[in-house]
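Researcher: Please generate the 3D structure of the following complex. Treat every line as part of one assembly.
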Amino acid sequence: MSDTTQEKKGGWFQRLKAGLTRSSSKLGDGISGIFTKRKLDDQALEELEELLITADLGVTTAARLTANLAKTRFDKDVDPEEVREALAEDIAGILEPVARPLALDPAKKPNVVLVVGVNGSGKTTTIGKLATHYRREGLSVRLAAGDTFRAAAIEQLKIWGERSGCAVVAGKQGADAAGLAFEAVEQAKAAGDDLLLIDTAGRLHNKAELMAELQKIARVIKKVEPQAPHHVVLVLDATTGQNALTQVGTFKELVEVTGLVVTKLDGSARGGVLVALAEKFGLPVHVIGVGEGAEDFRPFTARDFARALVGLDQNK
Amino acid sequence: MFDSLQERLSGVLDKLTRRGALSEADVTAALREVRVALLEADVALPVVKDFVEGVREKAVGQEVLRSVTPGQMVVKIVHDHLVETLGSESVGIDLRATPPVGIMLVGLQGSGKTTSCAKIAKRLQEREKKKVLMASLDVRRPAAQEQLKVLGEQALVATLPIVPGEPPVAIARRAMQTGALEGYDVVMLDTAGRLAIDEELMAEVAAVRDAAKPHESLLVADAMTGQDAVTVASAFKERVDLTGIVLTRVDGDARGGAALSMRAVTGCPIKLIGVGEKLDALEGFHPDRVASRILGMGDVVSLVEKAAETIEAEEAEKLAKKLQKGTFDLDDFAKQLQQMQKMGGLSSMMGMLPGMNSAQMQQIKNAKLDDGMVKRQLAVLSSMTPKERQKPEIIKASRKQRIAAGSGTTVQEVNKLLKQHKDATRVMKRVQKMGKKGMMRGGLGGLMGGGNPFG
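Model: Done. Output below.
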């Protein structure tokens, strides 16, 4: 991404809003369609449930939210705004407990963050963004190019290292990722860095041998720093459907994921699966990705996300 | 998490065993479950609705065959309709044009375009004996062009030299010119990932299309995609006239409903599927297999075919003879385990078996019935003497201790293996009565001692 495109896009808050609005306007329109001058009857409820489903909330979650609405408002005349408010409130209630930033401990030198996820979810880009952010906060940050599998993944991370001014620990393609992680933690410890971000190769959660390799990385790191990795962050693509539940479940079980980063929320995908994920696993959502540039990430706020999801606060 | 459609329907339709034709009410009850099953498999809602209506038309008044339950009948109708919607035959890459034939890949970020590009190039070069040139038009993601270059080296496919700072449209032109001048048959254009709603970038990809006039424009999409699949597919269809779809990460455990969504909204065939990280992990698309998977019926066809490829005919014949005589010994058991490993390990096989729901998968996981276990079992088997393998019944306490020590396992594990063999023998005998089809359905599941509804 060139610098000129970044300038053109304007302030980050507008871009967040623009991104999330795009994701939610369809849902918002749909709700207006259902409820304008109508009673909240069975058919309206069914249509509402379907709208939530099209936002990837999943059948179960959609049904539960709809049932909740029916309990309090069934057969009353309702206007769309009211329905949205109530829905947003319910969704925000579910998301509130998981909206927690990545908490770094200043006493720890370094905080070790292992970044994991399936292929193409946006791990390397997320690391680039986080590195830029923490460098600007004045932290000393080191990156480890642990994706030794994908062609040119190391180069990609090196470029992010140059852009953000972070040292990059890198080996050769095909090298042992666990060995590299070990070396990176040693180096970060010796240099007294505040933060070490370790990239890993993308892997599908149902590949036992690749998941075992990831467990090995976590294990090997502990030999240098028994408490590490302090955070294991799973990067999740917002376009993912219901498979996200299996994905998060498996990664959590096998490598003790401590939090999520949700990427590509600037697209037309609405990331509604986050609601189901919050209910099922309660894992913190640290930040959301809304573009390819270094600035394109935001803290996750339950209320904003929920309201944007149901199409509120669009034209303000 | 997912119940198979079969299970869902059996709850609703079990009461209706053998009642002649399917009534409107039966079908409505069943279709409610079909709808949920499709949604859970990430088929987009508008597509689900059309689909369900299509099934209703076919199902109402349909005679229930004598040998099946109404539930199975509905599954059959749904499955057939699904296969029909997905496109009943597989369509490959079309190269019938004046060379160099342009193939452009488009899609969202992270959908797998670059890897797919190299896979397709390799396939065309090796199978169709075409001379292929690849060019990366991705000037946005850091090191993306470098990535394609490295993949080209790995796949032994030529790549267009990188000129730093050159814009995508110019790269596309240069690629097509180079292709024409240097006598390439195929030129592959790997574009940058872009969001369907990013006007600027969608205009760029349309400009690339106008400049290069590719014969094929393929949308590369992740099999895990949720409801957004329709938006993405229709946006790309509108802007660049897609000619086909490449579905990636089909080796994951997503149900792959996106395949149906995209096929339905674009009308474009799914031409290829990506099934792994290696450069030869690319396969043709078989609608019936994906249909079974979306419905949670297990990929029976794939399993049977894969088994057939791996198991040498001779071996199979020998095994069959032994089965007939009832002498399925531990040597045969070891062979089976080895074949299982060849077929891509237990985990990939389990995913293909019908009737394995996620709870059972979980049980298997808990029981440590993983590929490591197969390895340990093979170690146990190879620590036995030939005589022990032929006559397992002679293995008593002291032999067990020796075998456990020799294979680095425990007596319990040896016992477990012996019991599994015994169970397997029993299943095999039963299978014989059921015929070959029955073996694939009940045999392997039963062999592993996992609970399965067919066993």
